[in-house]
Fold this protein.
Amino acid sequence: MGQPRQAGRRLHLGAGTDHESYLGLEKRSLGLLKGTRWQHLAEPDHVGPAPGVAEGTARRRHEMGWVGEGEPLPTALAATSGDIAVQFDQAARARAAVQAVHILRHQGKTLPYPLLQRNQELVGPVGLGLRHLLVAPGIPVPDFLRVAGVGLGGGVLFDVKILPQARSVPKGGNTRRLGDTRSGKHSHPTSRPQALARILQAHTHSVRGEVGHVKYSQVATPCLAAANMRLYTAQAMREADLRAMALGYPSLLLMEAAGRQVAQRLLEHFGGRAIAVLCGKGNNGGDGLAAARWLAHWGHEVAVYAAEGQAGDAATMRQALLAHGQEIAPLSAWEPRPHTVVLDALFGTGLRGPLTGVYAALVERVGQSGLPVVAVDLPSGLPYAPHLRADLTVALAGLKNEHVFYPHRAACGRIVLEPIGMPSEALENPHLPELLCGASLRTLWPTRPGNAHKGSVGRVLVLGGYRSYTGAPSLAALGAYRSGAGLVTVAYPADCAVNPPLEVVRLPLQEWRADQLQTVRAEAVAVGMGAGAGGPEAALAALELRKPTVLDADALQEPVLRAYAKAGRPAVLTPHPGEASRLLGLSSEQIAQMPLEAAQTLAQRYPGLVVVLKGGPTVLAWQPAPASQPMLAVNSTGNPSMATGGMGDVLSGVIAALLAAGLSAWDAARLGVYLHGLAGDLVGKPGLLAHEVADALPSSIRQLCSGDIRDFWE
């Protein structure tokens, strides 16, 4: 194992109390420390209590390392004997918010878990049999792997492979199995026990560090389906704070962690500049004051400008900063200076109206200065005008609506999501919109058995086409094929020159009649693409097939949607803002300004139908029969280059293929929207065409399944 960093001390843990019943692992391998203080510290192979070591005290013993005598340490911690050393940061160890560390010993077996890939990302599937490692913000894990700001909560998992020899991973990223001791390609695992840990991280996918000589900047993070990422409003975050305090988690600790995370990220992106910190009266200002103290403590040139009148935790942070000898000037004293970065901690999510007076003037001055701006949680002023435009926004604990929805997202610049130690119980709220990410959707992709054939993997029937819209059903068919459909049939008016892909079965019809459609073998239907005036007739004929259906374009008519809702069949409707405005009696601009509310209203109007409101980003809503409120989801993929004709037709085909493969309407819509947007991101270029997105779908599927995905936030 490599040498420890100077930031902390190595610590090997020995036997504890009741660890067998807690972990179900070897007594000699693990120690468990219970309560809020250390109980025992023993030599690695010692089974019983360590003689002469008092409770709450850690002393130096041989090669184990030490921490300060009498210091309270994490509430529960376990580690293997001789396989792993845990470091505690000097400044954070006494208040570490660690809940548990479970280390699984591996006795020489090959496990299909994370490997260091050539793209320098650590990836791997979730294995529910493994244990979790929970680490508080600011506490590094072993010296060859530094996890920046790992915290508690969110249920977002990633696996970390702890290498027996850090230097055995060659530069360039050749993969090795857990337990290998030889460099290069795969070799047989040894019998030497190795440690494998999984870190439970609070809503973040960004990890920085180095394994051996191979640097990496991000880890693909498989999510548990039961712990999806959520999108927070200001009220939802206030409620999360209250729940955390009700659980006994101090709000001051959250603010301290937030300040440190912000300070670290600022230095990472704008190190070497002087720093001007602008702080308001509220908690956002308190975060800024905490960040200023860390920055000054680390020896950086910091000038602090703050409003008067802080209360509660923010007032405590102000006093702590003053105690360190840092001067605090009034906000009115701020003047732009060259080679300076501005830390914006004026206002966060608590703003309830547009900025006025001195704050509006200050925001205007900062914006006109041309200096880089790092925003704490949100650029001050959002979601109103005037507001700052940040170069970097450090989102705390969870992403907010403004981080995801345009035009506000454009004001955030580069977005970094940082955990602050918020307990997962406090953050989880099933009533909030799910933020779609590849980690949580990966398990939805249907796998194929070795004896699969075109009739067993899902067949799709596409109904559409009109004299002037002959390409729409063809694009839907292409989207279905590229998303895994085994066979696609396109039914279209006989007088239309529809020219679908060569692989498509053609079915020209004189009229839309169910008896003619029933001859087609299909597990799902997509209807309405380019159907013109015949769209409602085609949709009602498709309803008689009693198949899961995607309703798009000309099929999105009030009588049709009422009929499908009454029938209770799985169906997905995919309106764009113009079509939604017609259904809701609102303008397209109103729909674009409140997409969550619009999608929710459509789901309530047509209960049981899944709504996919296309836009930037796409919003999904579904109200199951027994539920009183719709489920909501917001997509995180896609880009403005996809705003071109035919994109919606491809999406309909994608969702139909997933329905045909056996996914529920909600799962097919979520996965389909995500893959469609991801394909657009992979191609991402000006002049993007719909068929190019369809052709990129296999690559997006491959990327999803491999975990090789980077979200728009870090």
In short: The chain has three domains: 1-181+191-227, 234-432, 454-705. The radius of gyration is 28 Å. Residues 251-270 form the longest helix (20 residues).
